[in-house]
Write a structure and sequence with these properties.
The chain folds into two domains: 233 residues, Response regulator (Rossmann fold, 3-Layer(aba) Sandwich), CATH 3.40.50.2300; 144 residues, Response regulator (Rossmann fold, 3-Layer(aba) Sandwich). The protein has 399 residues and is α/β, with parallel strands linked by helices. The two termini are 34 Å apart.
């Protein structure tokens, strides 16, 4: 992954994957350069998460350039990724988006957190218009009715019903809440709480803390365990989530964990052993995801970054596929600058993306802008990941 130089612009950090170029400009390799914006947390407590997203975006852009670009209306094009650090703060997301539009003329901007996405949705249908590639599973992103949003991951409201049913049957009906306190975490907490109550369970208090700034979770875990739960609902970035699990096990908790989809098992396993995750339920590990394209992607990932590099996560894979899909949509639309035409061809792009880039099986895009695909989650049973297919809580793709 090429990160190039680092230039501090006020409170925002600029990183470029290749040589700088204006959208639609030329490059030394003879390919037309189109700038794609990335705004996410590249510093602070969520930096690891943000850099995983960025890694997937950069990997796709680098592969496109190395392969000679892609064709758009008779021209060969490659992407330049222009990255800005918003530190997970929505007001900085808005500032960064304006900067990208003014300085880099980005027809597409990718944002990987719900708070920032909501802010950008208030901007992207006004001139200069741009396509918002949204990496968040928050359903309200689709409910906003923004015609220039393309939501890349599965929406999280498909997880609660099967997860709650499984955890109640295995562990019991008392749930304590210890999630992150971001807007995304609060939305997840509400969804889990409603479903837990709907299925006849008992809810403890909300002991949520900011996973991005908290370093010692001992006190928060102690307060949550005072509710005598059978199951803990937890989650935020992977590393602090693992610290919550460690603290819970050290304090004698033997129950299960419902882990919101931001945290990833393989990253948590670098901090806690598999035994600590026994009974946990969360998103399926990317490297062994049960689709034909997942192992092929993992092979290319390790070829690029080395066999000893960290395991690929869904942040890497979904955003890699998202950039590949956007390139295909531009090819089909015959334009790199018209976000409405690019969005209109996203569904066809999902269905026609070449097999080598189809990490997940995609069926199309809904009217509200959601990329529809098969979804699997994982339940840790006797030290093994057991796959559970999740039904899509959305309408069938319409185009």
């Amino acid at each position: 992954m090429r990160l190039g130089g680092v230039l501090v612009l006020g409170a925002v950090v600029f990183l470029s994957g290749c040589a700088s170029g204006e959208s639609g400009g030329g490059a030394d390799d003879g390919l037309e350069v189109v700038n794609i914006g990335f705004i996410g947390p590249l510093s602070g407590g969520a930096a690891y998460y943000g850099r995983n997203v960025q890694r997937g975006v950069m990997m796709a852009a680098d592969e496109i350039a190395e392969g000679g670009g892609f064709e758009v209306d008779g021209r060969m094009v490659r992407f330049e990724i222009v990255s800005l650090d918003d530190r997970y703060l929505p007001y900085e997301t808005a500032t960064a988006a304006r900067r990208l539009l003014q300085q880099n003329q980005t027809p597409v901007i990718l944002v990987p957190h719900a708070g920032g996405i909501r802010v950008v949705q208030e901007m992207n249908t006004r001139e200069p218009k741009f396509l918002l590639a949204a990496y968040s599973s928050e359903p309200s992103i689709l409910e906003a009715g923004n015609p220039l949003t393309l939501m890349l991951p599965p929406r999280f409201d498909g997880y609660q019903q099967p997860w709650v049913e499984i955890m109640m049957e295995r562990f019991g009906k008392r749930l304590a809440l210890l999630p992150t306190t971001t807007a995304y975490g609060k939305a997840w907490t509400e969804a889990v709480s409603v479903e837990w109550s709907r299925q006849g369970g008992t809810l403890g208090r909300d002991h949520g803390v900011d996973y991005n700034t908290t370093t010692d979770f001992t006190g928060a875990v102690s307060r949550a365990l005072a509710d005598e739960p059978d199951v803990l609902f937890i989650g935020g970035p992977s590393q602090p989530t693992a610290l919550v699990i460690r603290a819970a096990r050290e304090q004698g908790f033997e129950g299960g964990f419902i882990i919101m989809d931001q945290a990833k098992f393989m990253e948590m396993l670098t901090i806690v052993p598999m035994e600590a995750l026994e009974g946990a339920i969360g998103v399926y590990p990317q490297e062994t995801y049960p689709t034909p394209g997942a192992p092929l992607f993992a092979e290319r990932y390790y070829e690029r970054f080395g066999d000893d590099f960290q395991s690929p996560t869904s942040e890497v894979a979904i955003n890699y596929q998202g950039i590949r899909l956007i390139a295909q949509a531009m090819h089909l639309a015959g334009t790199t600058t018209d976000p409405e035409a690019i969005r209109a061809h996203a569904g066809e792009a999902a269905r026609t993306l070449p097999d080598e880039y189809r990490i997940f099986e995609m069926d199309g895009v809904t009217e509200t802008g959601h990329l529809v695909r098969a979804v699997f989650s994982a339940h840790v049973v006797d030290g093994e990941f057991v796959a559970l297919r999740i039904p899509a809580p959305t309408s069938a793709p319409s185009h």
